[in-house]
Design goal:
This protein is an all-alpha fold and 74 residues long. It has one domain. The protein has four helices and no strands. Helix 1 runs antiparallel to helix 2. It is flat and about 35 Å long. The two termini are 28 Å apart. Pfam families: ExsA_N. This is ExsA-like N-terminal regulatory domain-containing protein.
Length: 74
């Protein structure tokens, strides 16, 4: 399934700000990339034109007791 994501300047800038971190070899960058990815998701969900994306994420996450970010950290 593909979902169209409406891009605004904030989402585009957030995405572009992540790219340089993938070119560096630093153990601490994993935390920064995770934070930037969460920021990107927040901006996508916050945009009213992406309501369908947030609705989809809510629909597939119903019934799970642990949020996805807690599963990743284990």
């Amino acid at each position: 399934m593909l979902l169209y994501i409406h891009l605004n300047d904030r989402i585009r800038e957030c995405y572009l700000s992540m790219i340089p971190y993938f070119d560096e070899d630093n153990i601490h960058l994993e935390d920064i990339i995770e934070m930037k990815f969460k920021e990107l998701l927040y901006n996508i969900f916050k945009n009213q034109e992406n309501r369908h994306v947030l609705a989809y994420v809510n629909a597939i996450s119903e019934g799970y007791e642990l949020p996805i970010w807690e599963v990743y950290g284990k």
